[in-house]
Amino acid sequence: MPLLGSAAMLLCFDVDPGAIGEHDEWHTHEHLPERLSIPGFLRGTRWVALQGEPRYVVLYEVERLDTLASPAYLERLNAPTPWTQRIMPHYRGMRRGLCSVQGSRGFGMGHAALLVRFSPEAGAAASLRRWLAEDILSELPTRRGLGSTHWLEAALPAGMTKEQRIRGIDARIDGALLVTGYDEHALAALAHEDLSCERLQAHGARAVVTALYRTDYTLTAGEIATIAPLPTKGPT
Fold first, then answer.
1. Which terminus of the chain is more solvent-facing, meaning fewer CB atoms within 10 Å of its CB: N or C?
2. Taking the complete model, does pTM exceed 0.90, yes or no?
3. Nearest alpha carbon to residue 16 among 111, 80, 101, 90
């Protein structure tokens, strides 16, 4: 499957407009390398919105679900660097899901993606899962313009940490579909057709939010071992 592990962490958030430039520098040169140096973290990708909101989506692919509750990860969350402490107050509307990978089909990761977030209606979780597994997950990657589909479902609570206290309490992500491909128009069409709000609601979903993204930066754990660490920055 195209995702590298059996679990993933999905983050959706905005950043104060005046802090976007420094955020992207920090996220690229310090934060992603820091996260990808934690045992079990395999790949991190930052996406930026083309249509819809919020501005940012970050996906961390991890080896196993317990990676997201490991002492090594929690230690980082509770000991933010000076530069992290400078950036985190500029975060807005953070949503974070510690997820199991319910399915990952197709090949590779396209440069564009449609993200669909949703929650199951009470009593409809089983029928929603069945529809996603049988009618959506495997069929979409075969279409022109598309390449892979990834279904994530919340599996762990996100406990309070020092990073979260700095930026504010994180909201929850219950479920998400990330469909990637090479044709932005084909992906955008899904939001009005197969993955429209109305169609998901008909199969038992609620609180449906869709947005179109492009890849902004990707880093793998294997690369971390081959590069010298860059100097970090603190508050000025």
1. C
2. yes
3. 90
